[in-house]
Amino acid sequence: MFKTIMKKLNIFSKFLIAGLVAVSTFSCNDEHDFSLNEKPVVSNTGETTLTITEGSEATIELAVSQSIASSIFVLFKPATDDFDFTSDFVIGEGEFIEDYHTGGPEGYVVEIPAYSDTFSVPVEAILDVVPEGSESFDMVMSSYYTRMGTVEGETITYTINVEDYIVNDLDIEFSWDGTYTDADGDTQDLCDIDFDLELYDASFNIIDYSYSSCPEGLYITEGELADGTYYLVPSLWSTNDATFASPMDFPAMLTVTKVNQTQTTLDLSDVWNSTDGGYVEGNSGYQYVYLLTISGSNYTLTDGMTGDVVFNAKVANFLEGHAKRKAALSKK
After folding, report:
1. Per-residue confidence at 145, pLDDT binned at 50, 70, 90?
2. What are the C-alpha distances in Å from 165 to residues 259, 264, 317?
3. Same domain membership, residue 220 and residue 144
4. Do 324 and 177 belong together in one domain?
5. 5, 240, 313, 331 — which has fewest CB within 10 A?
6. What is the pLDDT of residue 107?
7. Does 27 fall in a domain?
8. pLDDT tens for residues 77-116?
9. Mind giving me the DSSP string for 7-20?
10. Distance separating alpha carbons of residues 30 and 224, to the nearest angstrom
11. How many domains does one find in the chain?
12. Separation CA 117–CA 300 (nearest Å)
């Protein structure tokens, strides 16, 4: 009787083991065991040379060789290490990672969702006002997590051509970047110092201003103001009770740009200092005055203290306005 029971148990065990093996084999095939099967491969199906105007975007078209139940991640980074393109482009959802060695941005990580057969990656060229002309950059796409998928040929190189976005607007930035050492020997940010930027009409009515930013800035769109002459006035309102370990000149700069066409930076570092302070501290010379003349889409900036033309959007070459102003002042 005992032998009969054991014989039946042995037979049952054999069937049970065979069943488990069959279930195990089925499960491995169903879950894409990449140790047995080829990993999904991401390939490019569109253009590898893209031309984009600043402020607009182009699209990279990708295909996945087989859809799986997990996301696949790819990395877009500059082809050379000396170029940080995160300041010029936004790729995908804009998720970028830092370089492990430098701590700076390495590139953009893009997630291709689960079960995707195709995927589109937007590439946006960031709009700025600086006239740079036509530019060309190379970037490389590679796998970020190779466990879930690979890129065809390991990497795919894209060439991005960027064109300036041309408008007849005027951008004005008043900056004083830097630090100072206070009376206690601590390093402080010069943004603590209260500079202002104002625009007046010919009757000395204020029509635009920037009071609470660092840097301060004004933006004039084409046709926003009638033709005529206006007063552009950068000024130092107050040092806000800051203390200084030693006297210093404030590194003030006025940058005037006809958007993506013409730009000049005027050095005002000899105008304001920690000793004289600003309006609140009783400095009668807390303002500096420029005359801004508008004629259609042309802008001319004249130094109100010397009469020198320091910016003229009609010409391609920038005028060295501040050098002339300093030379004129030295003769007085």
Report:
1. confident
2. 8, 18, 20
3. no
4. yes
5. 331
6. 85
7. no
8. 888 876 667 778 889 887 777 665 555 557 899 999 999 9
9. HHHHHHHHHHHHHH
10. 65
11. 2
12. 56
